[in-house]
């Protein structure tokens, strides 16, 4: 089943930013594109004077750095955006046409953009997933492009007409789904062109050289064609339908088959889960469906009952739902579906997105039993401490952090307070060693150092191993060959360390005995930014590199300064750390440390409070309202997490629980954040009645408090 959850907080943040930037000029959102990764959104804004600007956001609603001022689009004609993996290609159809390719993560994407121009306007342009620019145009059209951009020119046929429906590429091939019309007889074909492209000297030579993988004399008729291609492990599937039609044609090496739709086609796209389809029934609902790959590959004729999901996205109004305003992430978890309106300007008519409806959804998909293990996101070979390698995240309670840990070995979770950072860390690393860094925490606590002990009535100093060294010894011992593990599973810590020292000595001398980790070991460091990290880690900063761990290409074994013992990090030891972004910026962390950690941001998630209502107060809307005030004045790092309110609805008296949370957790933060700026705060946000002009908390009884919260939630 598919359950669409509107991402209201994301669209609220985006719309709030656009209102603050362009509200005085009058504007519409002319287009929006979702990136295949599902991480970013590109928004094309059109002002009343027909000027246009592009902004890029995370799907969580945060504006990307470098895109604050917007990228101006100096073209009054049609503009088409093509999101790629790390770039956004923008095709402007003014004069002879131009494509600009902007890096999505750049301090100045406008200055870092690459430009491709043409001598005549192309018929069709596409930007592939591998960063190639495909241009369908007259054979004589020339282009001018920088060396960094690979341009593939597809010539229009000289003896007929061709319409390209979809383009996909691999490292060495380009796949085309197209309709070819010759002598008034159309045929649907899926063709392949080897890359680099063979030299051709006429359009006839090009089309003769295209390898036809599948073809059909049955071509969808009617209006706008909607098509896509799926490539995986050398196999291919192509899908083509017509907006408003009742069937889809599926092409593969086995031939062409027809899929009968449970309604009129609105949108289709392949995802890693299968073919995703949106259909509508006139006078009825708009619905999302999924056809798994096993059904596509094994069923001769796909029937209505093969479509799974039946998720309602709203009422179906054919005139305002267009496949142009739709997109889905490659993993099938983020959906963009817009509703359009129309407007005339300068003698032309264009469509734009209506902003009064939800058009961004998180899709919660329940897989069928035989494909569940294949499609689950966040499953890796890693398990928490004590779990055998190969157990799934479903069995061990794993999270989406596991693939990151497998790749980078250590992760820092950062974000505002109350977003669940420590909870996520402990859920990922069950039974882990847990420490909290602070100003007094030292290398001697973490790795090793001298400690006073009493011996024969005197105080002497001995070297004691710290928590991280002890964990590393256990992890290495767990990976040793049997010849080094005399005590096997009954070994004490000193026995383990002795075996590990013998192993490291031989390994340092050149004996590269293979290690075979049996389990995974985790260290959770809470509030990592509160300690003097460089001093606490010492030489371990170097060892954190994955390529310097035992068994890696640049394996490094060091001698510790206090004990003189050998030390290394094994491949089965992982670090999960947390830091509060409101306490200290990530930019202030040591550069060497930042390079060795992967960073994961946890933002407030108001949707976790969806449907929770306390005496007429919607908690989801309340936290969005509070955070909009904080973010506007202080920045996103100072917002508050949904965790502050999660326990409110389960309390014996939810009203009293909300009162206590607000007065004893939220308002003290406001006092700290807005110290000395109270008049400004009250003038901008008249609904905020809890702090007076001198910064003092105004005490109210419970009924007065609830009334004030309702006014705050209703004030914009």
Description:
With 716 residues, the protein is an alpha+beta fold. Among the domains are: 209 residues, 3-Layer(aba) Sandwich (Rossmann fold), CATH 3.40.50; 109 residues, no CATH class. The chain is built from 17 helices and 41 strands. A five-stranded antiparallel beta sheet has the order 6-7-8-9-12, with no helix packed on it. Strands 32-35-38-31-39 form a five-stranded parallel beta sheet, with helices on both faces. A four-stranded antiparallel beta sheet has the order 1-30-27-26. About 4% of the residues have low confidence.
List its traits.
716 residues, alpha+beta, Rossmann fold, five-stranded antiparallel β-sheet, five-stranded parallel β-sheet, 17 helices, 41 strands, globular
Task: Report the CATH architecture of the domain at 393-601.
Answer: 3-Layer(aba) Sandwich
Q: Tally the beta strands.
A: 41
Low-confidence stretches: 368-397
SS field, number of helical segments: 17
* Class derived from helix and strand content: alpha+beta
Q: What profile does the largest beta sheet have?
A: 5 strands, antiparallel
